[in-house]
Design a protein that fits this description.
The complex is a heterodimer. By secondary structure, chain A is an alpha+beta fold. Chain A has four helices and ten strands; from the N terminus they run E-E-E-H-E-E-H-E-E-E-E-H-E-H. In chain B, strands 1-2-6-7-10-15-16-17 form an eight-stranded antiparallel beta sheet. In chain B, strands 3-5-4 form a three-stranded antiparallel beta sheet, with helices on one face. The radius of gyration of chain B is 21 Å and the shape is globular. The chains are: A alpha+beta, B alpha+beta. Strand 2 of chain A pairs antiparallel with strand 9 of chain B, so a sheet runs across the interface.
Chain lengths: 185, 350
């Protein structure tokens, strides 16, 4: 016997417009997750205009600021925090590199989706800098699970490429830091 | 007895499977959760590595590049996914088929690969695959996938497979299995369009509007169940004056699924993923899709083709205890399939 398809009524769904934000890891948590037990020292790094040009050319991705958020890991390795801007999404992520410059891990720290152009304003983005899981943020509402029309992770992958170019240009030749970094994490 | 560590919840996201994969795990100590989530991500990475169309070293690429008829040794995970692919192609009468890769390549949705080494036509001649012709781009033909003991696979015809239709769901299933084995009581693995919930928890889900970004529809709750949505919101493009996207009807090679989103609830994510493709291919026959975005009941499918499609799709939804909803651009939802115990109506979620 062929089973007839069960059909329930055609209904009208209620649409909601909203932003979407999730906080996964603080910078400190990501550091511990990627380099358990290691100590990390902030490494002040500002790319020269020439270096910026090379990074943009090599990675094919724009650079909004020459200031790089990077930490040196005791025992070798580097930890970067960077963000990428899509059409609707603003993603802060961390990249860990081992002493040879190989990617050790990529973790998303925060993810925000917004509509109506606000994502392109520095003021909107600024409200998220320095946030940790201790200060969770809610946009209009925190949507637990969204499905449909997969958002691409292309921007994050491009960002990782950019981090690797920065490493190559500005850090690869640097002597690895000795233990006991003095700067705060 | 030492006091038990408090139960915690952990939520992580990583860029994998071409999207952001989010894992939420709860009901164990933080140490257990952290280990489990790390392992689950590694498993997803492993499945991605085995089944990637882009990676020249993946099992899928090795199979695609092998001469037709040549046995290829693959990982047991790859073997299972390929078995699933062939089974779904058979049960759906070709409404799902992994051999659509050449179409997606022509449309620029998959990278071009080295020209397929075409075997002698004798390989095909004896198989009586009348629908299959080497002279045109093959879109259909997972039936030419053959399996042998020892995790070996071969393509008896010069096909190029893309497992994008089910591999993401399969990776989600594997991640859930790893979390459970590691002692996680409940959790969610969400890989963009493919999501699975396990344990004693009901999770509200929302689906994106098929055309308007930033607009969501609440779909109800999910408990111990998987859900997958297919839509062309981000993959739609123009190709030689035609609207194309990642959804293609393998039987005709024509693009399908424009203007709607298709969501399926069923026990496992690979199946949910695959069933959305079966429905996408059947929309026109069922009288549910097309440019007008018209909706109606399955019975509205016209003629013999409509009746046959309704029978095949209806039987599949019943067999797998699946439920589906097709949402058009106007926000009208057409519900198909059985109301299963996993489904929690929106009214009961809020």
């Amino acid at each position: 016997m062929r089973l007839a398809p069960v059909f329930t009524a055609t209904t009208a769904l209620v649409a909601s417009t909203s932003g979407y934000a999730t906080e996964y890891l603080s910078v400190e948590q990501a550091q511990q997750a990627m380099f358990p037990g290691a100590s990390l020292a902030v490494t002040p790094l500002k790319l020269t205009p020439e270096q910026v040009k090379v990074v943009v050319k090599k990675s094919g991705v724009g650079l909004r600021s020459p200031v790089v958020r990077v930490w040196a890991v005791s025992g070798g390795g580097w930890f970067f925090v960077d963000d990428v801007l899509g059409k609707h999404e603003f993603i802060t992520y961390a990249v860990g590199l081992d002493a040879t410059g190989t990617v050790r891990g990529v973790e998303i720290l925060t993810y925000r989706e917004a509509y109506g152009g606000q994502i392109n304003t520095p003021k909107w983005r600024a409200q998220f800098t320095g946030k940790t899981t201790a200060s969770p943020l809610l946009l209009d509402q925190d949507i637990a699970n969204i499905t449909g029309a997969t958002l691409s992770c292309r921007h994050v992958m491009e960002g990782v490429k950019r981090v690797l170019s920065i490493y190559e240009i500005a850090l690869a030749a640097t002597n690895l830091p000795d233990a006991a970094p003095s700067a705060a994490r | 007895m030492p006091p038990r560590p408090p139960l915690a919840e952990l939520r992580r996201a990583r860029p994998l499977l071409g999207t952001l994969v989010e894992i939420t795990a709860a009901g164990a100590s933080s140490a257990v959760l952290a280990r489990a989530v790390t392992r689950a991500f590694s498993t997803i990475e492993q499945v991605q590595g085995l089944l990637s169309f882009h990676d020249p070293a993946s099992d899928l690429t090795r199979l695609n590049q092998a001469a037709p008829g040549q046995w290829v040794q693959v990982h047991p995970l790859s073997w299972t996914v390929l078995r699933h692919a062939r089974a779904l192609a058979r049960v759906s009468d070709g409404r799902f088929d992994a051999a659509i890769a050449p179409r997606l390549q022509v449309w620029g949705l998959l990278p071009r690969t080295a020209a397929k080494r075409v075997a002698s036509n004798s390989l095909l001649a004896g198989r009586g695959r009348s629908r299959f012709s080497v002279s045109r781009v093959p879109a259909c033909g997972s039936a030419a996938l053959e399996f042998s003991a020892g995790s070996r696979v071969r393509l008896a015809a010069p096909l190029t497979l893309d497992l994008g239709g089910i591999a993401k769901g399969y990776a989600v299933d594997q991640a859930v299995a790893v979390l459970r084995r590691a002692g996680v009581m409940r959790g969610v693995v969400n890989a963009g369009g493919d999501l699975r919930v396990f344990g004693d928890v009901a999770v509200p889900v929302q689906v994106r509007h098929p055309e308007k970004t930033g607009v969501f529809f609440a779909l109800g709750g999910l408990r111990d169940c998987a859900l997958a949505t297919s839509a062309l919101t981000y993959s739609a493009r123009r190709w030689r004056g035609q609207d194309v996207g990642a959804l293609v009807d393998p039987r005709t090679g024509q693009p399908c699924g424009h203007g709607v989103s298709i969501t399926v609830w069923v026990r496992s994510a690979w199946l949910a993923d695959g069933l959305t493709k079966v429905l996408a291919s059947s929309l026109i026959e069922l009288g549910l899709g097309g440019e007008t975005g018209a909706t109606g009941s399955l019975a509205a499918g016209k003629g013999a083709a409509g009746r046959e499609a309704a029978a095949v799709v209806g039987e599949m939804l019943a067999r797998y205890e699946a439920r589906a909803v097709i949402i058009d651009a106007a926000g009208r939802a057409t519900w198909l399939g059985a109301v299963t115990h996993e489904f929690i109506a929106q009214a009961d979620v809020a």
